[in-house]
Queue: 3 jobs
Job 1
Amino acid sequence: MNQVFKTIVPFLSTPFKKNLSFDSMRSKAYIAEERDKEIAVETLQRIIKQIREY
């Protein structure tokens, strides 16, 4: 789980902070913004597609 947060945190934001830290995201994972979740899902889907086409 730590690696997932380290990978996606640079691409996330909140209404109040443009840049998040890995530790803050990990401790507050239960309050992810809806748009951030959508971006994470889209990114993971692109990664899955690339893996399948490999």
Job 2
Amino acid sequence: MEQYYGTGRRKTAVARVFLRPGEGRIVVNGKEFQQYFRGVVRAVHALQGFRETGTLGRYDAVITVLGGGPTGQADAIKLGIARALLKINPDYRQQLKPRGLLTRDPREVERKKFGLKKARRAPQFSKR
């Protein structure tokens, strides 16, 4: 059985996406996609790669995602799906690249510095 793999990352989330020819079942960490991302509106954007290439319903996806929150995980899955689709057919690049689906979002959380309340937030100044 042929299988295609893509890794996606966003913030602290890492998604491993395996695509196999099938009828469009998407399983995330052992749960159905809709059940895993229950109530997360942005999660449907994770499937944008399938929609852009017209392959929605043609591949089963088995996804393992670790770390981060729902938004970071959904975006990591989006990148993983796009990279896996590229291995299936390199011609999909023309549909995926202009929509930014092959670009890894480099933004990470800035670390907290000592003497401050957050990364940049200074303690409240008191004159007296």
Job 3
Amino acid sequence: MSRETGRLTILHVSDVHVTRSGRLYGSVDGAARLCAAADWVRQTGVTPEAVVVTGDLVERGNGDAYAIVQDALDELERAAGVPVLTVLGNHDDPEAARMLRGHGSGHARVVLVDDLRFLLLDSSRGDLGEEQIAWVRRALREPHGSGTVVALHHPPVASPMPTLARAGLRDADALLDALDGSDVRAVLAGHFHHPMSATLRGIPVSVGPSLAYHQVMDAGPDRVSGHDSAMFSLVHLLAGGVAATSVSLRSPDPLFTSQIA
């Protein structure tokens, strides 16, 4: 594990949009991209503490694709050698997704990985709701080990893109109130299809890019558009904060290669 380097690493994947057949927009094979991320882990030797996938596992209307998703997640778990933890997004089907590992009895849950605690939340409706917020408060009542990481689909912060400015978590303030004063070290989210970082109430928030497509950031004030660019993040929990690095699955020819002693 990366613990030996003095940092805890989370491989953060989001917005996969797997379809049961064919390719999303004629190009995107979400399951194959999960397997490509697994190959990246093997080739680089990165040793995360956990893999977290923050929702939109399938494209809307493809609830029968979760078996395909689970097979690809299993491949990623074998490559990383650590648990793959998933939450649901607005494209996901809460009933069909119960066949995914860890989701049989509910989509909001606590998972302990060594001495890290993960709070996996269900924002598939666009909000968490009073009942889930109360559950978060209870779960965080006592600190745990090296701290807690919260994962959900909708970020508790607005995107800078005009078309996505209101697409964040609807009850963000209620969530932040529940996290205030707790041992939460980071919040991981997705949904925007572009990377973003923020610090809210002193808590680092890392919005991961999408494995399916990346937002065209200059598409205009009244439209959304996507590049065929598959990306994910490495999130490092450091002694004094959090660092996040976006990684592209594209591998252009290198300009140079040097041996590092």
